[in-house]
Amino acid sequence: MQFTFLSHKHFLFPASFIIRLALVIYGDYQDRTMEVKYTDIDYHVFTDAARFITQGESPYNRSTYRYTPVLAWILTPNIYLNFTFGKILFILCDVLTGLLIYQYLCLRGISSEVACRVCSLWLLNPLPMGVSSRGNAESILTALVLCTLLCLEGRRLTWAAALYGLSVHMKIYPVTYALPIALALRTQVTPGVGREAVHPQRRGWGSSLWGFLRSFLNGELLLFAVVAAIVFFGLGALFYHMYGWDFLHETYLYHLTRRDIRHNFSPYFYMLYLTADSEWSQWLGLAAFVPQLALLLLVSWVHHRDLALCCFLHTAIFVSFNKVCTSQYFLWYLCLLPLVIPNLSLSTWQGVALLALWFTGQGAWLGPAYFLEFKGHNTFLAIWLAGLLFLVINCFILVQIVVHYRPVAQAAQGRKDK
Amino acid sequence: LYNFVLTIPVYFSDDKDQNICGIGRQWLESILVSTECNGNGFHREMVTTVKFSPDVPNVLNVLLVHKLPRGIYVDPYQLATLNDSDSHLQILLDSPINLEAPAHRTGGFSALLYATLVGQRSKLLKKSIPIHCRYHEPSFGDQKAVIVNIGSPDLLLRSETCNDGSNFKSYSIVDAPCTATNSSICSWVQIRLNKEQSHVSLQIPVGDGSLVIHVICGTLLVTFICCSALSLKIWKHRVLT
């Protein structure tokens, strides 16, 4: 059999760390010797902010530092020890993400061999390798989100809630998981069974609504909500006390109100650029929010019993329909895709074809974007059309995933029958 | 940190043979300054060349004051990285730079570029500053690009050994920071230049405002169709357990 080494965790995890470490070492060499730098500009932003902290100042003195102070604090060894400390931390979190995927799949009943092969889609994937070795901090968040899902799957609710609160503190997008988590933890109402059986009599809308709302009042959900809120608001209060309004604005408000008119993958980019100073701007922003919200609510309701699929669809929809979309955002849902793959009835070739389609969509955008930014050609129209095409491709891929998804019980039966 | 005072009292003299601090007037008037922009797109290099005649005085401090329009910006963090490297670019900016604002929401600024001429060999000073173009408002006519002009910089000189302003009565005296660290103010002599080119023009692409209705309708239509199609499939293939 080919690629059997991928099935051995004792090879896969060390190998993926060594490859990332090699990239960090190469990146240091490229930074010192070549004009085009390997290290991402964000890493310099984090390090500058950490330097301000070591000088007793606010990390927000660094222009464009729009992250939680936690990140600058944990990167202070960049100043005290070595500039590459942060990169080592990020690649460790990257490999940890792979390990958490493996643990999750094993918990779901997947064999170690298959789990390793699925994990290799993340661990040997050049995209997360490149992102973390260049100094982007996305891997911290992917590890936190996966740890939250793993704890939820293992019914360790206190840990899950604390990790969830920390995830939302670090980046806003996991807040969308609150609804499916709440729906999953509430008292499940099933006629004739369960802790609170519903009498099979005709009920009015009022009592149905009351029953629905009352299902949210259970110990597990309240525990989760309280612990998550304590962690999130506790950290928020601490950093507000230390850094004031700058912390709230740069960490949260900027991202919520961000209108970046510069070219990016979002289908709304050109519309927002052309209308940035018009009176329609606010209404169009709202119109852009409606599809995103509607889909998130629908996915929460339909798929809350399978949190891995639900969170994957949530994040993929959130990113694809967002008003700003950069390539770093792709990692937010790519880390959840391996959790879904064992339940897909797509063949390998179908999967490869969808992946090729996804890359084609990106390529169709990157081409005109390069000519605009680096050659000065007016390719705005092509970038706009490529952004719309990329949205269509993303939706097509999500449809294929939804259509070919087999729930856990059916997938396990399928594997038994083989 | 960024404030400095410019005072420009102007005096005129007819004495063409005046020798100022060992620097010949003819030598001063033979200095040539030119500016060009290399590259295309939104990221370019602004190269300023100053040609001196031979017999440069022993040590001469040079200050080039670039007045840059609002359509252009420099990244102070990128400049700080260049300061640490071999290129030794000493630049002081006169105001904080917003890296992300579009052109019509920000203003122009001045970039003070410091250099030192040492010894009689230095006849040519060539300094390159990385500049970036801002997004501009969309055009509603046929223009696909806006033109942004960058004028030639002002040239200021200062000698370490000769600071008596009375020697420079025929020149403008300007007060400006002594070095890029902005820790003290010195008097500089502004040199009247024979400028080879009056300005450099950059073409920056802009969006087509006349298409705004088409873009709004097209975007909302495609996003609505995608949202509807995805919603229908999600609902149709919901898991009934």
TrEMBL record, chain A:
Q: Which GO terms describe its cellular component?
A: endoplasmic reticulum membrane; glycosylphosphatidylinositol-mannosyltransferase I complex
Enumerate the subcellular locations listed in this protein's record, separating them with semicolons. Endoplasmic reticulum membrane
Q: Does Cell wall biogenesis/degradation appear among the keywords?
A: no
Keywords for this protein: Endoplasmic reticulum, Glycosyltransferase, GPI-anchor biosynthesis, Membrane, Transferase, Transmembrane, Transmembrane helix
Q: Where is it predominantly found?
A: endoplasmic reticulum
Q: What class of enzyme is it?
A: transferase
Instruction: Give the top-rank taxon of the lineage listed in the UniProt record for this protein.
Output: Eukaryota
Q: Name one GO biological process term.
A: GPI anchor biosynthetic process
Q: How does it sit in the membrane?
A: Multi-pass membrane protein
Q: Which GO terms describe its molecular function?
A: alpha-1,4-mannosyltransferase activity; GPI mannosyltransferase activity
Q: What role does it play?
A: Catalytic subunit of the glycosylphosphatidylinositol-mannosyltransferase I complex which catalyzes the transfer of the first mannose, via an alpha-1,4 bond from a dolichol-phosphate-mannose (Dol-P-Man) to the glucosaminyl acyl phosphatidylinositol (GlcN-(acyl)PI) intermediate to generate alpha-D-Man-(1->4)-alpha-D-GlcN-(1->6)-(1-radyl,2-acyl-sn-glycero-3-phospho)-2-acyl-inositol and participates in the sixth step of the glycosylphosphatidylinositol-anchor biosynthesis.
Protein's UniProt name: GPI alpha-1,4-mannosyltransferase I, catalytic subunit
TrEMBL record, chain B:
User: Keywords assigned by UniProt?
Assistant: Endoplasmic reticulum, Glycoprotein, GPI-anchor biosynthesis, Membrane, Transmembrane, Transmembrane helix
Q: Which GO terms describe its cellular component?
A: endoplasmic reticulum membrane
Q: Which residues cross the membrane?
A: 211-232
InterPro entries on file: PIG-X/PBN1, PIGX
Listed SMART domains? PIG-X
Q: Any idea where this protein resides?
A: Endoplasmic reticulum membrane
This chain belongs to the protein called Phosphatidylinositol-glycan biosynthesis class X protein
Ranked from the top, the taxonomy reads: Eukaryota, Metazoa, Chordata, Craniata, Vertebrata
